[in-house]
Amino acid sequence: MFATDHPAPVVPASLCANGLPLDLSPEKFGFLRETKPDEPVATLHQRMDDDGYLYLREFWSRDRVQAVRDSVTTQLARLGFLKPGTPPDEACFDGREVGRAMGNPLDQHNPLLRDLVFGAKITDFFQAFLGGNVRHFDFIWFRTKGHGVGSAIHCDLVYMGRGTHNLYTTWVPLGDVTLELGGLLVLEGSHKKGEQLKPYLSRDVDDYCTNREDAADYASGKKWWDGTLSKNATSLQESLGGRWLTSPQFRMGDAMIFNMTLVHGSLDNQTDRFRISTDTRYQLAAEPADERWIGEKPPGHITAQRRGRVC
Ligand SMILES: O=C(O)CCC(=O)C(=O)O
Ligand SMILES: [Fe+2]
User: Where does residue 30 rank: exposed (0-12), middle (13-18), buried (19+ CB within 10 A)?
Assistant: First the structure.
């Protein structure tokens, strides 16, 4: 029974983003709307328009995701990131971060993981949702977050907007993620703040302004803008409106799909265990793809990808 399996969430006294406490009053904080994956496509489109995301509970079987988790925690243990003498499945943090996105050493070619995040189930879903043949970016973003601050607040567009913007992220928890462990955090309605966010959304982390004094530093890779929209979730919320939303508990098997302009980050991790998830990207195959994320070894944010423009 649902109530026994998943008791009503207890919100901890404090939840933080980037080290700062969120306002947890009902006008400022809440939970994501859930969607059933088998809803008609028109309903899914409507939801994506309304919310900027689709939170699909139990999209994959739990066992399948557990097998992927096992393959990842085994790697983490082998690489020496887990507290010695603890079961790998508990993913106990030993004080050393694993590394962000491109600096993360986990195996990009893990067949179990690729089968999950690029396999028939998700491909069929996007095929129906986008109405044509789909492709995915080849790069997999791993998030292995130990105790401490979560991901900075951003929109994905500034990292991957050189191809089509009709592009979707799928965030996949590889383990149950409690509020204390710190999962994805999205700002309600922020995908509709295009006017206000225009200066931010028109940028790309690998672009720089040729007419500025420090252009040479950006061109050579000495300087890089990391794409953060705000370091302060509460002041951003004051200017954009909306509640900060998360799940009372993301569970293995859930998928959280969202568009390129939804403002998001993650809750800080208050525990002594790693929060493990991946995020991957999907688009129509016929539309242009951002070449930074394509290929056997996607180049990513390398200096050769810097582009100057007058701004
Ligand atoms: O998992 C996180 O901490 C951030 C995820 C994210 O930014 C994304 O899925 O685009
Ligand atoms: Fe993101």
Answer: middle
